[in-house]
Design goal:
binds zinc ion; 2 strands
Length: 86
Protein backbone atom coordinates (compact mmCIF):
# COMPACT_ATOMS: atom_id res chain seq x y z
CA UNK A 1 0.00 0.00 0.00
CA UNK A 2 1.35 3.39 -1.00
CA UNK A 3 1.24 5.99 1.71
CA UNK A 4 2.49 9.51 2.26
CA UNK A 5 4.75 9.06 5.24
CA UNK A 6 4.36 12.73 6.14
CA UNK A 7 0.73 12.04 6.92
CA UNK A 8 1.75 9.57 9.59
CA UNK A 9 4.33 11.95 11.02
CA UNK A 10 1.86 14.84 11.19
CA UNK A 11 -0.77 12.65 12.86
CA UNK A 12 1.84 11.70 15.41
CA UNK A 13 3.36 15.10 16.13
CA UNK A 14 0.34 17.37 15.83
CA UNK A 15 -1.43 16.40 19.09
CA UNK A 16 1.70 17.25 21.12
CA UNK A 17 2.13 20.61 19.40
CA UNK A 18 -1.52 21.46 19.91
CA UNK A 19 -1.20 20.73 23.61
CA UNK A 20 1.88 22.94 23.91
CA UNK A 21 0.54 25.71 21.78
CA UNK A 22 -2.99 25.86 23.18
CA UNK A 23 -4.99 26.40 20.04
CA UNK A 24 -7.64 29.10 20.02
CA UNK A 25 -9.92 26.53 18.48
CA UNK A 26 -9.24 22.83 18.24
CA UNK A 27 -12.41 21.70 16.51
CA UNK A 28 -12.38 19.11 13.74
CA UNK A 29 -12.45 21.74 11.00
CA UNK A 30 -9.41 23.63 12.29
CA UNK A 31 -7.44 20.44 12.95
CA UNK A 32 -8.16 19.13 9.46
CA UNK A 33 -7.17 22.49 8.00
CA UNK A 34 -3.89 22.47 9.89
CA UNK A 35 -3.16 18.97 8.60
CA UNK A 36 -4.03 19.90 5.02
CA UNK A 37 -1.90 23.07 5.04
CA UNK A 38 1.02 21.25 6.64
CA UNK A 39 0.91 18.41 4.13
CA UNK A 40 0.68 20.84 1.22
CA UNK A 41 3.69 22.78 2.49
CA UNK A 42 5.94 19.87 3.31
CA UNK A 43 7.45 17.66 0.66
CA UNK A 44 5.53 14.38 0.49
CA UNK A 45 7.48 11.23 1.25
CA UNK A 46 5.84 8.23 -0.28
CA UNK A 47 6.56 4.85 1.17
CA UNK A 48 5.27 1.36 0.64
CA UNK A 49 3.83 0.39 3.95
CA UNK A 50 3.79 -3.06 5.42
CA UNK A 51 2.27 -3.87 8.75
CA UNK A 52 4.56 -3.05 11.62
CA UNK A 53 7.37 -1.21 9.89
CA UNK A 54 5.69 2.12 9.37
CA UNK A 55 5.68 3.45 12.86
CA UNK A 56 9.09 2.28 14.02
CA UNK A 57 10.67 4.31 11.21
CA UNK A 58 9.79 7.52 13.02
CA UNK A 59 12.62 7.21 15.49
CA UNK A 60 15.21 6.84 12.78
CA UNK A 61 14.49 10.22 11.29
CA UNK A 62 17.07 12.89 11.85
CA UNK A 63 16.76 16.12 13.79
CA UNK A 64 16.73 18.34 10.73
CA UNK A 65 13.74 16.45 9.40
CA UNK A 66 11.94 16.74 12.73
CA UNK A 67 12.71 20.45 12.98
CA UNK A 68 11.40 21.09 9.45
CA UNK A 69 8.26 19.12 10.18
CA UNK A 70 7.56 20.98 13.41
CA UNK A 71 8.17 24.31 11.68
CA UNK A 72 5.76 23.32 8.90
CA UNK A 73 3.06 22.42 11.41
CA UNK A 74 3.58 25.63 13.40
CA UNK A 75 3.23 27.69 10.21
CA UNK A 76 -0.04 25.91 9.47
CA UNK A 77 -1.32 26.47 13.02
CA UNK A 78 -0.57 30.18 12.71
CA UNK A 79 -2.34 30.42 9.36
CA UNK A 80 -5.46 28.68 10.63
CA UNK A 81 -5.58 30.73 13.82
CA UNK A 82 -5.25 33.98 11.92
CA UNK A 83 -7.83 32.96 9.38
CA UNK A 84 -10.20 30.26 10.68
CA UNK A 85 -12.76 28.96 8.23
CA UNK A 86 -15.67 29.37 10.62
ZN1 LIG B 1 -12.34 25.55 14.78
Amino acid sequence: MLKNYMEIVVEDVLPDLIKEHKLKCDCQICIEDIKAITLNNLKPMYIVSHKGIVYSKLNELNNQFNADTVRGIMDAIKKVEENPRH
